[in-house]
Fold this sequence. Notes:
By secondary structure, the chain is mostly helical. It is built from two helices and no strands.
Amino acid sequence: MGRRSAGISFFALSTVLISIKYITEAMWQADVGDTLSNASLLSLIAGIVYLVWGEYEEFKKGKDN
């Protein structure tokens, strides 16, 4: 899996974690805490890093040719 794909996967994971938090709070009216928020934020940051890294490598490879 390339870095771009990994970045998109982390974005998807972040979206799922945020959705789970709000769906859980809506269904059971329970506070799930900050654990899911922290995990989704960490996943979002990792996604951005991997996506930028992959784009940089593609730019660098295109510039060499």
